[in-house]
Amino acid sequence: MQPIMTTILAIESSCDDTSAAVLRDQRVLSNVIASQKVHEQYGGVVPELASRAHQQNIIPVVDTALRQAGIDKAEIDAVAFTRGPGLLGSLLVGVSFAKSFATALGKPLIEVNHLQAHVLSHFIKVENGERRSENKAAAPGQSSTLHSPLSTPSFPFICLLVSGGHTQILLLHDHFDIEVLGTTIDDAAGEAIDKAAKIMDLGYPGGPIIDRLAKEGNPDAFQFATPHIAGYNYSFSGIKTSFLYFLRDRLKEDPDFIEHHKADLCASIQHTIVSFLLKKVERAALDHHVRQVAIAGGVSANSLLRSELQRICHKHGWHAFIPPFSFCTDNAAMVASAAYFKYQRGDFADIALPPYTRGER
Q1: CA dihedral 199, 273, 295, 315 (to 10 degrees)
Q2: Could you say which DSSP state residue 188 is in?
Q3: What is the pTM of this model?
Q4: CA–CA separation, 246 vs 259, rounded Å?
Q5: Which of 67, 187, 250, 263 could form a disulfide with 216 if both were Cys (CB 3.0 to 4.6 A apart)?
Q6: How far, in Å, CA of 128 to CA of 146, rounded?
Q7: pLDDT value at position 205?
Q8: Is 19 helix (H, G, I), strand (E, B) or coil?
Q9: Rounded to the nearest 5°, which phi and psi values hold at 186?
Q10: What pLDDT is recorded for position 134?
Q11: Do the Cβ atoms of 14 and 349 come closer than 8 Å?
């Protein structure tokens, strides 16, 4: 069946990034992201402040996305939005705007699961000669330009979805036939990395800071305990505890221990978490005889995770799929990508559908 040509406006507001994107036939015409600096002073996302910032950002972000795409709103065939999971107040802003915008235009709605959107970002296509900046916009009206062409995986393939809120090993049989092989039974990998950064008082968000400092350190300098969890599941609470107790004991001996060993500590905790993640991914791919492995989610921007996945795939003769940095963190282009495949199936949403904070609906 010939795919239906379509232009989709997508909105993402699940956490603290307000984003709007225009996608035409799997190709991104614009992808605008407004980040919220207000949370840095609190060391984490404050839900009430996030929802207020979304209210301020949503209109200028959507307006910029349409103008950058060079289209009139009348050319839109459908409006897509992240329905969940995420922060309720943040989701309500995006969901309400999408419903109002679609109703005013008389266009259908497409609801998208945030986690599926991360995975399906691998199917975004871009024109030859175009490129994207690796940086997110810091305020409404700023956005990235476009990346070089991306190859897309074929089914079945394994995807490690790893972020501050989720850690899962997925087996994709189709765009929406996704089997969860393993998940975290407590904390997510990204949360563990951010917690380590917070313990060392490195700043927020901690993941990029640890990644940068780790490049100067020795990953084998210190050892931290990893749990033995059955199957493909994960647990990161024990790693956090091991790291905390290790520093507690060392700081008794040397109050400046963190400052003296900052790079080595970052390299060691990052190596511990990445090795733990990929050990199970490698086993899952071997057990299911899959030769294509992808990563997605905010932590997929981590340089060690990216290089180690490439190393493992090269060892086995597998194909690694690593998203551009602009598609790792929350963005509306990935929502548009998921919506594209729903549009082809005629899978539209009822305007009465509410957002949800956890799981899938």
Answers
A1: 150
A2: -
A3: 0.88
A4: 15
A5: 263
A6: 10
A7: 85
A8: strand
A9: -145, -95
A10: 32
A11: no
Q: Which CATH architecture has domain 157-323?
A: 2-Layer Sandwich (3.30)
| Residue-level pLDDT at 2 | 54
Each domain of the chain, given as residue ranges in start order, spans: 7-150+327-345, 157-323
CATH number for the domain running over 7-150+327-345? 3.30.420.40
Say if 7-150+327-345 and 157-323 have the same CATH topology: yes
Kindly list the distances between the CA atom of residue 248 and the CA atoms of 201, 203, 226, 324, in Å, as whole numbers in the listed order.
14, 19, 18, 38
105 Ramachandran zone, left/alpha/beta (phi>0; psi -120 to 50) = alpha
- Cα 91 from Cα 81, distance rounded (Å): 9
Residues with Cβ within 8 Å of residue 308, at least 6 apart in sequence: 274, 275, 278
- Contact between 17 and 335 (Cβ < 8 Å): no
